[in-house]
Amino acid sequence: MDWLSATRVFVQVVESGSFARAAAALDMSNAVVTRQVAALEAHLGARLLHRTTRRMSLTDAGEDFHARAVSILEQFAEAQAAAARGTSRPVGLLRISAPLSYGISRLAPVLARFHEQHPQLRLDVDLSDRLVDLANEGIDVALRVATRLDPGIVARRIAALDAVVCAAPSYLRARGRPEQPADLARHDTLSFSYLWAGDEWPFTAPDGRSERVRVRPTVHSSNGDLLRELAIAGAGVILQPRFIVEQALRAGTLVPILESYRTLDLNLYALYLSQRFLPNKVRVFIDFLVDALGDEAQRISASPAVREAPARRR
Known about the structure:
- The protein has helices at residues 3-16, 19-26, 30-44, 60-85, 100-117, 134-137, 169-175, 224-232, 242-251, 280-293; strands spanning 49-51, 56-58, 92-98, 121-127, 141-146, 153-167, 189-192, 200-204, 210-214, 217-221, 237-241, 255-256, 265-271, 306-308.
- The protein is α/β, with parallel strands linked by helices and 314 residues long.
- The strands form three sheets. Strands 3, 4, 5, 6, 7, 10, 11, 12, 13 and 14 form a ten-stranded mixed beta sheet that branches. A two-stranded antiparallel ribbon has the order 1-2.
- The longest helix has 26 residues, at 60-85.
- It is elongated.
- The two termini are 40 Å apart.
- The model is unreliable at 296-314 (pLDDT under 50).
């Protein structure tokens, strides 16, 4: 049994939605397609598909295998194409996940340039602030804005991002301007649900002294754009990355406060699966991001929390 061919048949069955349609697409008989999938299940020791007379669906094992199989097949196709051309030009489908606000304000403008440089690559971009599972969801690269990453994650640092505490002029006229972080405990605040610090906002004074202020948000939200609009309307004080509030700051609809204090030290990371062979499409895209968005194109160093990304090829 050719397991690579059987895997291709399985993927085609899933994408076609039926054995009959897969057989037609592959120019095979229905019986051959059925035998290949059955043999693959026997080889893996796991049922991949629930099959009835009316419908077909993936099992949990099938969902996981399908996501990984698609990635493997694409890598194999890329390797074949590169060998045939004698070049390593990236081809295929690149699946990207990015935070909603960052994706719209920063990623979208540079993606057009990336596509111009690599027209043979197709892009599938998911914008969401949730934490994605790269393996189970078939994501090639996930961008994440964070102060730190969890242990075991393989990532490359793309850029440093600063955060801003700000409020609308109307709110400050009505409630007064906070002069030190502790004053925020008496103010209405609007908090980002995924903020790692929760409702304890961190600050570093000019003399290096650190403190955390427990705020009592009147609104929690998983979307920074919503919080920005609420702040512009005078609903309270927000702590957000600059890329979310920069236009409002330029327009004067929000004004920065506590400017002598440093707050969240954020970074943009590119996350990808830990594997010995890094697909060229992933490497090329991450290198592009460092050039387009990075501050000094520095890789994060190895630490207990984050393993170092492979060195950049030139």
